[in-house]
Structures are given as C-alpha cells and as structure tokens.
Amino acid sequence: MSHDGRGTQRTNALWGTSGTAGTPGTQETHRWFDDEAGPVVRPYAMTRGRTTSPGQHRLDLIAVVIAETQVPGDHDADRTLSPEHVDIVELCRDTPQSVAELAAELDLPIGVVRVLIGDLVDDELVHVTRPVPPAELPDESILRDVISGLRAL
Amino acid sequence: MIFRRSERAKASVEPVTLKILVAGGFGVGKTTLVGAVSEIKPLRTEETLSEAGRPVDDTSGVAGKHTTTVAMDFGRITLREDLVLYLFGTPGQDRFWFLWDELATGALGAVVLADTRRLEDCFAAVDYFERRDIPFVIGVNCFDDASRYPAEAVRQALDIDEGVPVVLCDARDRESVKEVLISVVEHAMAAAAAVREPATT
Ligand SMILES: Nc1nc2c(ncn2[C@@H]2O[C@H](COP(=O)(O)OP(=O)(O)OP(=O)(O)O)[C@@H](O)[C@H]2O)c(=O)[nH]1
Ligand SMILES: [Mg+2]
C-alpha cells in the first residue's frame, strides 16, 4: 500500500486552488443548502426531537431493513406508531430494502429514518441485517457475481 | 398475508448490499454517471456540524449554524434479486467531507471522476481514498471540448500508483460507465487478494 506521503504533497501544493471564483460550481452551490430556520426542525418532530436511537449503533446506509413476518401479538400500546413508522414497515414488507432507500423513498433525512427504524427494531416489527462489516471485503465469489451482473446490465 | 407480487412470496430474500462511491470536483459528471446506470434518487441528510465537523473542515463559512442539509446522489443497481449495488455521489464541497467518512465505511471502492481541464479538482478525492486504502479508479470524463490525454499522462499528472486503473470514460454513456464500475470491482478484488495473501514481498 502507498504510505509514501505523496498525497500530502499533492494537497499542500494545490489545496484550495479549486472552486474559486468563476468556476461553474458556484452556480450549483444552491443545491447543497443550509437550513438556518424551520425546515431542519420539522422532520425531527417526527422522532420527538430524538436524533439518535438509544442503545443502537449507527445503522449503515446500506443495512437492509426486513419486516418481521410474525407481528408480536401483544402490540405495545406504549408507542403510537406514526404514519412514517407504518410507511417503513409497509415498504419493507413489500421488499427488504436499505436504510438509504427508505430515506430516499420517504423523502426524509437519513437521521430521521435511522431513529424511526430504531423504534421499529425495539418493537420487533422489523430487523436489520448488517452489511459486510467495514474493513472486511466481501467474498471473491460475490465480487465475481457483481462483475458479471454489471456486464449483463 | 398478501403480497402484491406473488412471485416475491419469499420476500424475505435478504439481499447482499454493496456500495461504490462516486467522487470528484464540481460539475465533473458525478450525477450524470450515477444516472447513466441507475435511477437516481436524492438522498438527504441533516448533520449537526458540531458533531460532524472535523478540524480539517473549513467551517468558518458556516459558523453559528447548527445543522446543515446535504443532498447526495443515490442510485440502485439491482444485479440479482439478492445482490444490490448502490452508488453514492459524494457532495463536492470540501466542507461536507465529514459525510465522506460515513459513505466510505464499508465501501467496496470508489470512482474518482477527473476532468483534464482542471485535474486539480480531484486531488482531494484521490488523497482521501489513498490514505484510507480504499480501492479507487480514476475515470477521466472526456468532455467534448477538452483535449484528450492518454491515460498514462493522467496517471503521471496525478502521481498515482501503477496499480490504480485510469479509465477514459463518458459519464453519459451507460456502457462506458459499466466499464468504469467493473474496473472498480476488479481493482477491489485485486486489492482484497493482496490482503488475503499476506506475502510481505
Ligand atoms: N460532453 C460531456 N458532458 C458531460 C459529461 N459528463 C457530464 N457532462 C455534462 O456536464 C455537466 C455537469 O455534469 P453533472 O453530472 O451535473 O456533474 P456533477 O459532478 O454531478 O456536478 P455537481 O454535483 O454540481 O458537483 C452536465 O451538463 C452534464 O451534461 C461527459 O462525459 N461529456
Ligand atoms: Mg451532481
């Protein structure tokens, strides 16, 4: 592996020279906007202000959420499921899908969806599969399948 | 229980999911590339800067703000019912780099798109993946009005390892993008093989 520090030189020489005045990028910046006011707050109302789910590690963006086939009989009345909770369960019942897909589909920020999924896991309405652990590469056979899958697209 | 698609009665096929990142400077063709092979959906994240900001980020421009909304390109490629590849277009601005760490964790590899008219725009991305030993390939997006350079010249200008593939591509062209993605996976495979055989040669 290349730990030869060349990258550092590259950075020192040129960091900050890109994206200066007159680049086409300046026009595009409005896409990554800052919300100074309300819009940020509203989605988190859905999670009652919670930005993290207690006792849970951060769900990976590509972790797959699967609806439990057995819905627990003694449905816990403590927590009233929000329409968004229900949406998630229904989407996953149709097809198991990733955290990122659920966020995109429901047009909710990833952080909000993570909290809602955490609730559903607690309620045993869904479970989440861990993707290939970070720092561990998938099997070679899977990678071969990916290559042939891409060729066949 | 009623499933709309009865073929999917075994809807609990748990797919293996993988991700490839698409990085590069402003307007280099990231969104175009993701869109060429998948249906793009915008993905929003709201980050608390105090939590996510790193000393290396220049946060001076956003001082005093608590959260920031960042949109990313997000595409899904269903290779098989049980094998799904996700593409994530990384936000181009330096100040959103904290997001890269989350995206990069567990990534199979990355495409760094480069435009030969402003090669320096991709230096930061190259550095990022190099330092973390994340397999990446350089996709040289061949814009119509840019002069063509051989891949070797680009490699030298970027000062990257022999092993890093440099692929000339057209981000608008599906076949071309497929080739780029295939080279990412092949490169990741080679990197994995090198790790598995810890021959310290
Ligand atoms: N000729 C040519 N034009 C391209 C190519 N790829 C992208 N473009 C054009 O370049 C422009 C910018 O492409 P985008 O895909 O939006 O670039 P981006 O990297 O997503 O840009 P930002 O998200 O703003 O950083 C668009 O007008 C594209 O149509 C290419 O391979 N050849
Ligand atoms: Mg874009």
From TrEMBL, chain A:
This is DUF742 domain-containing protein. Residues 1-31 are annotated as: Disordered. Pfam families: DUF742. Residues 8-27 have a biased composition (Polar residues). The lineage of its organism: Bacteria, Bacillati, Actinomycetota, Actinomycetes, Kitasatosporales. It comes from the Bacteria.
UniProtKB/TrEMBL annotation, chain B:
Transmembrane segments: none annotated. One of its GO terms (molecular function) is ATP binding. Keywords: ATP-binding, GTP-binding, Hydrolase, Nucleotide-binding. The keyword Nucleotide-binding applies. InterPro entries: Gliding_Motility_GTPase (IPR052705), Gpn (IPR004130), P-loop_NTPase (IPR027417). It holds the Pfam family ATP_bind_1. Belongs to the GPN-loop GTPase family. This is ATP-binding protein. The lineage of its organism: Bacteria, Bacillati, Actinomycetota, Actinomycetes, Kitasatosporales.
